[in-house]
Design a protein that fits this description.
Layout: H1 4-9, H2 12-21, H3 26-65, H4 70-102, E1 122-127, E2 130-133, H5 137-143, E3 150-153, H6 160-167, E4 170-171, H7 172-178, E5 185-186, H8 188-206, E6 211-213, E7 218-219, H9 221-227, H10 230-236, E8 246-247, H11 252-258, E9 263-264, E10 271-280, E11 299-309, H12 314-331, E12 336-340, E13 352-360, E14 365-374, H13 378-382, E15 386-389, E16 392-395, E17 397-405, H14 406-416, E18 424-426, H15 432-435, E19 439-441
The chain binds one RNA strand through α3 and α4.
Amino acid sequence: MIDVKKLRENPAPYYESCEIRGYGKDIIDKFLDLDNQWKDALKKRNVLNHERNVLSREVSSLIKRGTDASQILSKVRELKNEIAQVEDSLRRLEIKREEAASAIPNLLHSSVPRCKGDENNKLVRYYGTARVFSEDIAYFKKNSGGSNDYDMLGKRPLSHVDLEAKLGLVDLKRAGKIAGSRFYFLKDRLLKLELALVNFAVDFLSERGFTIVEPPFMINRRSLEGSTDMETFNDAIYKVENEDLYLIATSEHPIASMLQDEILNEDELPIRVGGLSPCFRKEAGSHGKDTKGIFRVHQFYKVEQFVFCKEDDSWDFLEEILANAEEIYKILQIPYRVVNVCSGELSVLNAKKYDIEGWFPSQGKFRELVSASNNTDFQGRSLSIRWRSSDGNKIVNTLNSTAIATTRTMVAIMENYQLEDGSGFRIPKALWPYTGFESIALDDQS
RNA sequence: GCGGGGAUGGCCCAGUGGUACGGCGGUAGCCUGCUAAGCUAUUACUCUUCGAGUACGAGGGUUCGAAUCCCUCUCCCCGCGCCA
């Protein structure tokens, strides 16, 4: 949630931020209106409560002296009715005001490109040597900032779907039978590759000062609402029936809410947390996109970076977690580009977001592998996570970034490391110690 | 799942119907010949500063008045049961 006090004092930047993101300004007007109504009702309630307290104290002293208090008592009874009514409307206003407030997006960083649509994201840099099918070269050049770091392919590599089928690594049909589309059985060496990726990423973060955790895979409504936005809530989140529990869509949510309602000491910050968890996503609203294979699925493992820090440090940390994520894909030797995501595509939480998009030779496209966001104090305020400073408690800033999302990274490996004859794919060298094998192919022995 | 005990401000803790005691720690000031002690104020949240209101795990109820009595729920501790 945004800082309501700041908004009241100086609404101009909030109007501007709303407009740049493509929201109507009336989001803010609506809030301010409700806020005023709420304040009036609150004032009214306080005055009445005060009256009641004063009278109640009188009753107390009268009774102590043994005097009759029945006159005052009847007055108080009337007051109680009035208070009940005011409280009722106050409660309703409170809920509406809260809803209106949480719809107001975070203030944007000045470097965020101002526009709508993924195609308007601003290229930050390209890294690697991509394998590009001849027909995709124009697209590749256009989207890599005119890079010449590529090797041309005479034919298009197999899609990961075809390759998996050929190698018997994924059973989509039976998963569909028992759970539906976008589910899968991962098999044999592909499962071992997944475990290898997880272990590699966990070690990577552990070596860089992250405390690694496995969070609860389900969290309650308050924690989820505090850590995410309504759009994610509606499009991604599975609810557990008859329980106040929701399956997590990313370990960002339990990690962010892990410190909810706490007040940290200054010397505890910054806190770097690396989370490993399955991620459960409904993928509502993505019908027809990436329907085959394991590119877009209802569950996958993800190793996530999360940082709690002071306001002054958060922009440096955004660069740090982005650099970490980039290093991972450099080590895995997967060509990628970094984009600065434009205002119209950010969630209400994000002040700024970078995506790392890997090159997928079979698709002939850059596709998202990583999102690295600075949510400044937006998430911290919703979750009431503060730190003690010499001039009062301050809201912590929070940031998060993917390290590795397993399924997509495996697809990237299958496409970028594919053998020329389409009989399999090699494993990135950095993973060999984790997999114990160097390739997955038709002629595998085990 | 059963039985017992708990949850009070950053931390510790008192308080069984009359409006939350005290300590520690933090901050500010005073004093002090000094890495100390003492004194004073302040140290949850909200509203407009005074001031007022709210807050004793959460939500209801009884009452003029609830941390305190009643009901429901959550979490923690101990024991029993069950279980990977």
